[in-house]
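Notebook, bench 3.
Goal today: get a predicted structure for TetR family transcriptional regulator from Aliarcobacter butzleri L348 so we can plan the truncation constructs. The sequence was checked against the plasmid map this morning, with no discrepancies at the termini. Length recorded as 154 residues. Pasting the sequence as submitted so the record is complete.
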Amino acid sequence: MYNYFASKEELAKFAIKYSTNILADELRKINNLDISSKEKIYIFVKKYLENVQKSPEVIEYFLRVYLSNREVFKQGCEGFLCVGEFVTEVMILLDDGAQKKEFREQEFFPAFAMIMGCLGGFAFLSGENVLDKDILSYSDAVADNIYRALKYEE
């Protein structure tokens, strides 16, 4: 595999773009559905946890390599450059929900970190084999927590 890339770093960058684009494509499809923002959160969480279950290496790569070895990604992956499509789709989800008054207006980064913290936490717990039940059985509870943190209140 290394023969196709100029360096291990280039391979790592390609792998992170590939893995996050899988998530971005799924979220893009969800964002295009004509349903409530709450339903989108529930579907997104379920799809994310299904990915954790079916392809743990995709999520594990993001958590264990990209986030913990940022120095590998300094050249050409600054900021959100390598994960931009996914970040954009999360931004669209949040913006659409806020425009419809289903989510409250808030700064992007706290909302993004809250969503990814919940999902990343469950991916980590699953990878460590410490969950009491199948990861998908937590889907509604995780989605409910995320929705409650985002929902619009008068």
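The chain has six helices and no strands. Residues 8-150 form a domain with the Tetracycline Repressor; domain 2 fold (CATH 1.10.357.10).
Flagging this for group meeting.
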